[in-house]
Design a protein that fits this description.
This protein has 416 residues and is an alpha+beta fold. Helix content is 20%, strand content 26%. The chain has ten helices and 21 strands. It has a six-stranded antiparallel sheet, covered by helices on one side. Strand 7 and strand 8 form a beta hairpin. The protein starts with 37 loop residues before the first helix and ends with a strand.
Length: 416
């Protein structure tokens, strides 16, 4: 994952040898805090001021550094954004897009996550477009009809996916020539003649009016057919956005299934309530993630499990709405990686459930464990070829999930 901020930030090397060269931003340390919250744009964000992301009504935000700690909005933001989206422009309204300066002040551009990193049903993600500068000084979009004349074998979407995965470069062919694009210094080089062409990555422009229309269209979409959700869901309660908590009666099989799993290690505790979480948006994303994992494994069935996660009352609504975020929902351990922790045994998760008015809360969660390996305390994603980390590969009881689309918070248990 990359910065969703176009700014030579601290820790990023800036190439200044050539004034016209645009430099790639490459860091994962601040990506979330510099990313605009997609939930806030759509309706609201249940995390409120605890959200790790920026709350803005637009999918982009231009700011200048007012003092050592304060960033302030730049006037004429929509005009600046429109200018920035045109790769021909280096400046606008006194703002230098190359040096990211507004007068003598530093500038940054915040935006929503790249469209290639989110499931297709997410609205107002940022669509990034890649360009190269031809011998006439014109910027040509990769994969566009003007670029296809050269026989180029790569598109903007492909480049964005490779860039988002953290690659340093990407090889491709055009006609009978081989090229390599270097993301750090943002240029492509002919592998035979060693000629270089500048490369730029700019967003596709979205006006304020288009943002409003996209949100209106999203809210007016008809509900998915009931058949696309679990058979045991209450089909009369499927919100277009957000979720509903449905009390499960103790006579139903699903209540007994959850109760049985809970009582394997918590037999003396009293269950006051079990609620089913019906969040159509999260369910669709979960199913999409499952399909992607199956495709990557050439159709092999994905290891899917029900696991427990202890929590506190004030985090229930944010989790039900937006899923688990380990930075906000708390860290139930760090021994096997920095992610969301889930346990086979309710007794383990009980350690992390907080009492409120004499009751405690625990989620019973669907988890796409996939291929797993033993974790380490310092990792922020599973090693290549793996989907999650565990405490033991032979008899795992603790699972660490780094990608929240692999999680669906299906049940909430209230107990004492």
């Amino acid at each position: 994952m990359k910065y969703m901020i176009d700014n030579p930030a601290k820790g990023t090397k800036v190439i200044t040898e050539k004034k016209s060269k645009e430099v790639s931003m490459k860091s994962i340390s601040e990506v979330e805090i510099n990313e605009i919250c997609l939930f806030y744009i759509r309706k609201h964000c249940s995390f409120n001021d605890k959200c790790a992301r920026v709350h803005s009504h637009l999918p982009y935000k231009w700011e200048f550094k007012y003092d050592l700690k304060t960033w302030k909005d730049i006037p004429n933001m929509e005009e600046i954004e429109k200018a920035y989206c045109n790769p021909e422009n280096n400046t606008s309204k006194g703002l230098d897009f190359i040096t990211m300066k507004y007068g003598s002040s530093n500038v940054r551009r915040l935006s929503t996550a790249s469209s290639v990193t989110k499931p297709p049903n997410f609205v107002l993600t940022t669509k990034w477009v890649w360009y190269w500068k031809n011998e006439h000084g014109k910027w040509i979009e990769y994969g566009h009809h003007a670029d296809k004349k050269s026989g180029a074998s790569i598109s903007s979407i492909t480049l964005e996916k490779v860039y988002a995965e953290g690659a340093d470069s990407k090889s491709f062919s055009a006609a009978d020539q081989q090229y390599v694009i270097y993301f750090k210094d943002m240029y492509q080089q002919n592998q035979k003649h060693y000629t270089k062409r500048d490369v730029r990555r700019r967003p596709r422009f979205v006006s304020v009016e288009e943002v409003k229309k996209k949100l209106e269209t999203d809210s007016e979409k008809t509900s998915d057919p009931a058949s696309s959700f679990p058979i045991h869901w209450d089909k009369g309660v499927l919100p277009e956005f957000g979720y509903m908590r449905i009390a499960v009666t103790n006579t139903k099989d699903e209540f007994k299934t959850v109760e049985t799993a809970f009582r394997k290690t918590m037999n003396t505790n009293q269950i006051h309530k079990i609620e089913r979480i019906q969040n159509p948006s999260l369910w669709k994303v979960f199913q999409w993630q499952k399909e992607q994992m199956e495709k990557s494994k050439e159709g092999k069935e994905v290891d899917e499990r029900f696991l427990f996660h202890g929590t506190k009352a004030e985090l229930i609504d944010p989790i039900c709405e937006q899923n688990f975020d380990w930075r906000i929902c708390g860290v139930n351990g760090t021994s096997y990686g920095k992610g969301s922790y889930f346990a086979r045994d309710a007794s383990y998760s009980n350690k992390y459930s907080k009492v409120k008015d004499g009751h405690k809360y625990m989620f019973f969660v669907r988890v796409l464990a996939g291929e797993f390996t033993k974790g380490r305390s310092n990792i922020v994603r599973p090693p290549i070829l793996y989907d999650s980390c565990v405490n033991s590969t032979t008899d795992p009881t603790i699972f660490v999930i780094f990608e929240k689309y692999q999680i669906y918070p299906e049940y909430l248990i209230e107990y004492s």
